[in-house]
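Q: I'm writing a short explainer about histidine kinase for a general audience and would like to include a description of its predicted shape. Could you first generate the structure from this sequence?
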Amino acid sequence: MEADRAKRDFISSVSHELRTPLTSIKGYVDLLLLGAAGPLAEGQQSFLSVVKNNANRLMDLINDILEIGRIDANKIQLNFENVDMGAVLQDAQQTLRAEIERKQTHVSVDIEPDLPPIVADLRRVTQVVLNLVSNAVKYTYPGATVHLRAFQNPAGLLQIDVEDNGVGLSPEQQQHLFRRFYRADNPLRDEVGGTGLGLSIAKSFIELHSGEIWVQSELGKGSTFSFMLPLTQPETTDDAPTRLADE
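A: Of course. Here's the predicted structure. Afterward I'll give you a sentence or two in plain language.
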């Protein structure tokens, strides 16, 4: 509908306009923290760190809104290539190392021997894995355990499990978890922050790959987020949706 398209265009335009000055703010804060303008007192470093953390949260929100806009406008085109999902899990562990070490989380990676590659969009499946692993670390208490597994399930599909022993989810929370802007109420919610869009975006990306994503959880005992993907994808066609210029 015309009204929906106008709304999407407006949100996309505003988000892009916000991202440009925010990128500049983040850059100058990083320079200040590195001492480019001279030594900083402990209090100054603390205040700048607060600015940096909140700027990062705002940037995450803007990027999520832009991603949702692309999904709604059917402007996500997947770039298929052979992807080693075991390597994706290992890379995610390295990418999130600072967060993992800060929470003193014990992360293990279990990759099935001779795991076949899949045909997928590396950027999108990496984004899904990073979201799930980051959530697992965030929604556990210090010293908790997170297990990452990659294997070919009995249906012949590649499956990824991200298991934690964190706060867990009630059956009612699990029903709403993949809805946009939904954030389950739990003891770590305010500390973690977030937009409530990450899992919705992850679900869209997995479904674009003809896959499935789900969660098994018990309140107070932890959660296992899983997704499975086919090993191959149908041939793309010339009339596939056009990629946005900044993708």
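A: For your explainer, you could say: The beta strands are 80-83, 106-111, 118-121, 145-152, 158-164, 212-218, 222-229.
Q: Perfect, that's easy to follow.
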